[in-house]
Specification:
Blueprint: H1 3-7, H2 11-42, H3 46-74, H4 79-94, H5 100-127, H6 133-162, H7 168-185, H8 192-196, H9 201-204, H10 209-239, H11 245-273, H12 275-283, H13 286-295, H14 299-314, H15 317-327, H16 332-361, H17 363-381
Helix pairs in contact: 2-3, 2-4, 2-5, 2-6, 2-7, 3-5, 3-16, 4-5, 4-7, 5-16, 6-11, 6-15, 10-11, 10-15, 10-16, 10-17, 11-12, 11-14, 12-17, 13-14, 13-17, 15-16, 16-17
């Protein structure tokens, strides 16, 4: 492979991996929309209902870094289509089980599938990105973000028409996507410098755990804020501004769509202007926007701050994934598992704490607590050396 070819991004493979990401994360996005049907079918308490999302988040948190290490050791592309298939199969089975514990096990299968897919697919996206890693990971991330946005819409339409048996659609989607990935990426070869492994590039660039740990703090803090906004924004729209449930759902959808556009811009800026600039552009406005949002007494100001938050929370997402892979040059799969999976799961696990604050002190205070977390994350980003461990 000539040097010029190594610099080019293989757009076809990147978009294929992004499509796999879409198919995988549709399941995670769809699960909250399915939960009310599960609650009614099983006659669940609120606590038992909460265990469904908690089970998925916990399993993902525990397994994704492990599968990342597995992808580093074996580098098997077939783990990506297998992950998509298991994620879709698990969600399908949640609607077909007749036993609560079997349904929880199905949710676990969905979480394991997601954990298998993300580290392997992100590693593959890195390999075919050439020198355009920011843009490649942005395109890859768009698939996942889009899955979170359209997953609830698809689930709501299917279950309204067919009941819980409508989850069969996700199994069909999983089979089609997995087969597409098998035919599309099984022939993907690692760049020569990656094949040489420890004898070459990885020896020249040892893992930089200090920088990676700082990055992880920033990512996890951002994840707590993002998960909490997704969970409580509709309630905020209803209880603070007196809007309808539909208006709350629209606010979340527009927030997600604005985030997808921001993610694309972030990948472009990261490649052209540097990862440090992209990181600071994203994090600096986060705390002020959260604080002003919590004080907003009209929808116009609230909408402006919500769009600023969409920019801030999504703009540097792909940049952070690329930095994680850069800092852990010998363990790109593990780095991807932490930046894409563990951090997101931690956000889901911690979101109930933000909800507890809302129960006792009001939702506005919850957003002010998030603003405090954002200040911590922003400070940490100024101690991250975006040039550390960078390839020659």
């Amino acid at each position: 492979m000539d040097a010029q070819a190594e610099k080019r991004m293989d757009r076809g493979k990147v978009f294929l991996l992004s499509g796999g990401h879409l198919s995988c994360d549709i399941n995670t996005g769809a699960l909250p929309a399915i939960i009310p049907y599960l609650q009614e079918f099983y006659g669940l308490t609120y606590q038992a209902t909460g265990n469904i999302m908690f089970a998925q988040s916990l399993i993902s948190a525990l397994t994704q870094p492990l599968f990342g290490l597995l992808s580093d050791r074996f580098t098997k592309p077939w783990l990506a289509p297998l992950g998509v298939f298991l994620a879709c199969l698990g969600l399908t089975l949640t609607g077909l089980c007749s036993n609560y514990y079997a349904m929880l096990a199905a949710v676990g299968v969905c979480g394991i599938g997601s954990s298998l897919f993300h580290p392997t697919a992100a590693r593959l996206a890195n390999q075919v990105a050439g020198t355009h890693k920011g843009m490649a990971l942005s395109i890859f991330s768009i698939g996942g973000n889009a899955g979170f946005v359209i997953g609830p819409l698809i689930a709501a339409a299917l279950l309204a028409s067919f009941g819980l048996s409508g989850t069969i659609f996700f199994g069909i989607l999983g089979v089609i996507t997995a087969l597409s990935l098998v035919f599309g990426i099984m022939h993907m070869s690692m760049p020569q410098k990656a094949v040489q492994g420890k004898a070459a590039g990885s020896e020249a660039r040892p893992n930089n755990w200090k920088q990676f740990n700082r990055l992880t703090v920033a990512i996890m803090t951002r994840s707590v804020v993002l998960s909490s906004i997704h969970a409580y924004l509709p309630l905020y729209w209803m209880h603070i501004f007196g809007q309808s449930k539909t208006a709350g759902a629209v606010a979340v959808t527009i927030f997600g769509l604005a985030g997808v556009l921001s993610n694309i811009a972030g990948g472009f800026i990261s490649d052209r202007k540097g990862r440090a600039r992209a990181l600071h552009l994203a994090f600096v406005p986060m705390a002020p926007a959260l604080f002003v949002f919590s004080l907003a007494d009209n929808l116009v100001l609230a909408w402006i701050m919500l769009l600023v938050l969409a920019f801030s929370l999504y703009f540097a997402f792909s940049t952070m994934v690329v930095l994680g892979q850069q800092f852990l040059a010998r363990n790109i799969g593990f780095a991807s598992g932490v930046t894409l999976g563990l951090s997101t799961a931690v956000g889901g696990i911690c979101a109930p704490i933000i909800g507890w604050v809302g129960d006792h002190f009001g939702l506005a205070t919850s957003f002010q607590v998030m603003a405090g977390l954002a200040v911590v994350a922003t400070i940490v980003t100024f101690f991250i050396d975006a040039n550390a461990n960078e390839a020659e």
